[in-house]
Design goal:
About 30% of the residues lie in helices and about 30% in strands. The chain is an alpha+beta fold. The chain has two domains: about 110 residues, Arc Repressor Mutant, subunit A (Orthogonal Bundle), CATH 1.10.10.10; about 160 residues, Chorismate lyase (3-Layer(aba) Sandwich), CATH 3.40.1410.10. The strands form three sheets. It has a six-stranded antiparallel beta sheet, with helices on both faces. It has a two-stranded antiparallel sheet with strand order 1-2. The chain has a two-stranded parallel sheet with strand order 3-10. The longest helix has 14 residues. The termini are far apart. The relative contact order is 0.12.
């Protein structure tokens, strides 16, 4: 263990039996993802944050003491203290001297809800509720999956942008977009860092008319995990979407990843669908 306890790794430490993902305690399962290079204090922060946001610990409820959490996770109190400091910095808990640690009294998870059917409405809703930050921007020859989607060959060039959408300081979506070079060449790095692609397309005279969406799941890789503030290997919702203009021309393809604690999809079933 490092002297300050903040970089304890997931390997077994001398003289101490490691906690496994199936270890049960009086608090219920508090698993640590045993991933190489992931600090234990960050893993504990993620587990506690998810339990707070999912309502396991309710607003205003007292949390176990540092000593109790240290036993639950089989880590040092210094490691627990570091994880709790991060929770406090994100305004999820309050530490009252001489009394204890409590869940903040007004926990409102920044969770977004979206209809599966209202694709265009969903885009506008995300634009209103989140802020955007550009992570990467380049022009690339079409990868194989983009060739398949757009029906082009490997010589076609696309603008590839990676952006992060957040509510305040909380990351919600990791988004990768591909648009044909002839459309994307008019969009500057500065514009993509502050304006939604939906609005930029509208400015160029392109009106999104319809779309096709596939909902799946994948595990957070070492690139995406720190951007979404989740552990490597955490489950993520994946949305793959194609957007068409009024002439039914495919103008954009994007892949969006989100933690299920921050985003959910809702679907309504009409009587005809149920009758089928």
């Amino acid at each position: 263990m490092a002297r300050d306890g903040s970089t304890e790794t997931s390997g077994a430490r001398r003289g101490r039996k490691p906690v496994t993902a199936t270890a049960a305690t009086a608090e219920g399962d508090l698993p640590l993802l045993r991933r190489q290079g992931a600090s234990l204090n960050h893993q504990i922060f993620l587990v506690m944050r998810d339990r707070i946001l999912n309502g396991h610990y309710e607003a205003g409820q007292g949390l176990p003491s540092e000593e109790e959490l240290s036993r639950l996770f089989s880590v040092s109190r210094i490691t627990i203290r570091s994880a709790m400091a991060t929770l406090e910095a994100e305004h999820l808990i309050e530490r009252r001297q001489g009394v204890g640690t409590f869940v903040a009294p007004t926990i409102r998870p920044p969770q977004l809800h979206a209809s599966v059917s209202g694709v265009i409405e969903h885009i506008a809703d995300i634009d209103r509720k989140t802020e955007v930050r550009l992570i990467e921007l380049d022009y690339v020859r079409a990868p194989f999956h983009i060739q398949s989607v757009f029906g082009c060959d490997s010589s076609a060039v696309f603008q590839r942008a990676v952006r992060l959408r957040s509510i305040g300081q909380v990351p919600i979506f990791h988004i990768i977009t591909f648009i044909p070079q002839e459309i994307g060449k008019d969009f500057t790095r500065e514009e993509l860092n502050r304006t939604s692609l939906y609005k930029l397309l509208q400015r160029s005279g392109i009106v999104l008319h319809s779309g096709h969406q596939v909902v799946s799941a994948q595990l957070a890789d070492p690139v995406v995990a720190p951007l979404l503030n989740v552990a490597v290997g955490s489950p993520l919702l994946q949305l793959r979407r194609q957007h068409f203009d009024e002439s039914n021309r495919l103008v954009e393809y994007f892949e969006m990843l989100a933690s299920p604690t921050m985003f959910e999809l809702n679907m309504s079933l009409d009587p005809e669908a149920l009758a089928g």
